[in-house]
Design brief:
With 357 residues, the chain is α/β, with parallel strands linked by helices. 32% of the residues lie in helices and 20% in strands. It is built from eleven helices and twelve strands. The strands form two sheets. A ten-stranded mixed β-sheet has the order 3-2-4-7-1-8-12-11-9-10. It has a two-stranded antiparallel ribbon with strand order 5-6. A hairpin with a 5-residue loop joins β11 and β12. The model has no long low-confidence stretch (mean pLDDT 94).
C-alpha cells in the first residue's frame, strides 16, 4: 500500500526510469549517436513507451567537447525526430535539462519527458578545455586548469582544518570500493592514490576522464504510477549560482548549494541517500557541510564522480542513481546534487521520495 505524499508544486512529477552506458576511458569507435541510441532504447523499454508517446524531449551536452557548433542536433537521429517532436537542449549537464523538462511538465504542456545527456571527453584535454569557462579578462589568460583550481579549494579546506590528506584519501577509497557494485563505473575497487596532480590532490582525489551517456524518463501524477512500480517523486528541486570571480568566494563553503537545498525542502526531513556530484574528493567535504549530511546517510553508494565522471552527464547520473535506489526500495528519501563551473560555482539540488510503504 502507498500512503499520501504532499507536494509543494502544481503537479507531482517523478523519475520513472533511468539508464546509463558503461563509462569508458575512450570510445573512439563510436559516434555520439551510436553512444546515445542504446541508452535511449533501454530507458524507453523500461517504461513501455515509444518515442512518439513522449511529450517533451530535452538534452544536455557541450559543443566545446565535440569541437563543433550545434553538435547536439546529430543525436536527435538517435531519438527519432520525425514525425516532429517537442524538443529542447541546454548547453549544460543533463541535470539542468531535467530541470527544464520538469518545468515543462509543471506548465501542463507535457505529461512525460525524455531527458538525456552525453559527453565524449576523450578526444581532447579536458583540463585545458574547462579553462574556457573562466572569467575571460583576469583568470582565463592565466590558464589555470580545473585540477589546479580544485587544488586551491582543497588547500583552503586543509588550511581551515576541515580536512587533511588522509581524510581525502579515505573518501576516494570509499568511493572506488562502493563502485565495485556498479557495473557501469569506469573505475572500480581498490585504486592507488598515486602521485600528486597538484598538491594536495593526488590522482585518486581527481575524477577519471571518460565518455558516457545517461537518460531518464519523467512522468506526472497517476501516469507515473502506471509506468513504474515505485516512482521517485521529485518533491523539491532548485539551482543557484555563485560569483564568477573565485576571489569573491569562500572556497571552503557552498552557500549556493545550501540555498538550493533549502528551497528544495531538503531540511524538512532526514534523507537516507545522497548522490553528490563531487568530481574531487575535497568537494565532498564542502557539500556534506552545505547539505548538513550526517554519518548515517549513504553518500555516493554508486561510487560517484570519482568512479565515473562523463562530462555533461555526471550530474544527471546522480539524479538517476538516487531515483534507481528509490525504485528498488533501497531508499525512501534521497538528495541528488549536480554542479557546473570551477570549484562548485553552480549547484542544483533535487529531493526525491518514494511512496510510503
Amino acid at each position: 500500500m502507498t500512503g499520501p505524499r504532499t507536494s509543494r508544486y502544481a503537479r507531482d512529477v517523478a523519475v520513472v526510469a533511468f539508464a546509463q552506458s558503461d563509462h569508458l576511458r575512450r570510445t573512439d569507435e563510436l559516434s555520439e549517436v551510436e553512444m546515445v541510441m542504446p541508452v535511449l532504447h533501454q530507458v524507453l523499454a523500461a517504461t513501455g513507451l515509444k518515442a512518439g508517446e513522449i511529450g517533451f524531449t530535452c538534452s544536455g551536452s557541450s559543443d566545446y567537447l565535440a569541437g563543433r557548433a550545434f553538435s547536439f542536433t546529430m543525436t536527435l537521429d538517435g531519438v527519432g525526430a520525425w514525425p516532429p517532436i517537442s524538443e529542447s537542449h541546454v548547453e549544460m549537464d543533463g541535470a539542468w535539462a531535467l530541470y527544464e523538462a520538469w518545468v515543462k511538465i509543471q506548465t501542463g504542456e507535457a505529461d512525460t519527458a525524455l531527458v538525456y545527456s552525453y559527453g565524449k571527453s576523450s578526444p581532447g584535454s579536458v583540463r585545458d578545455v574547462l579553462t574556457r569557462q573562466l572569467d575571460p579578462y583576469y583568470l582565463a589568460p592565466l590558464w589555470p586548469d580545473s585540477v589546479a583550481l580544485a587544488a586551491l579549494q582543497a588547500q583552503a579546506l586543509v588550511d581551515a582544518g576541515e580536512t587533511d590528506e588522509p581524510a581525502l584519501a579515505a573518501i576516494a577509497a570509499r568511493s572506488r570500493a562502493d563502485a565495485g557494485a556498479n557495473p557501469h563505473a569506469q573505475l572500480r575497487g581498490a585504486v592507488p592514490q598515486g602521485d600528486y596532480q597538484v598538491r594536495p590532490l593526488r590522482t585518486g582525489d581527481c575524477p577519471p576522464v571518460g565518455d558516457g551517456v545517461a537518460a531518464v524518463v519523467l512522468a506526472a501524477g497517476d501516469l507515473a504510477r502506471q509506468l513504474c512500480d515505485r516512482p521517485a517523486w521529485i518533491t523539491g528541486i532548485d539551482h543557484r549560482i555563485e560569483a564568477h570571480g573565485l576571489g569573491l568566494r569562500d572556497l571552503t563553503d557552498s552557500p549556493s548549494t545550501r540555498i538550493a537545498a533549502q528551497h528544495a525542502g531538503l531540511f524538512d526531513a532526514p534523507v537516507d541517500t545522497a548522490e553528490l556530484h563531487a568530481p574531487f574528493s575535497s568537494q565532498e567535504v564542502v557539500l556534506r557541510k552545505a547539505l548538513a549530511l550526517g554519518d548515517t546517510v549513504a553518500v555516493n553508494p554508486s561510487g560517484g564522480a570519482l568512479a565515473a565522471n562523463p562530462m555533461m552527464a555526471a550530474g544527471l547520473i546522480r539524479i538517476g542513481e538516487a531515483a534507481a535506489r528509490i525504485h528498488r526500495g533501497a531508499s525512501d528519501r534521497a538528495v541528488a546534487h549536480a554542479t557546473s563551473g570551477p570549484c562548485l560555482q553552480q549547484n542544483l539540488v533535487a529531493v526525491l521520495e518514494g511512496d510510503t510503504r
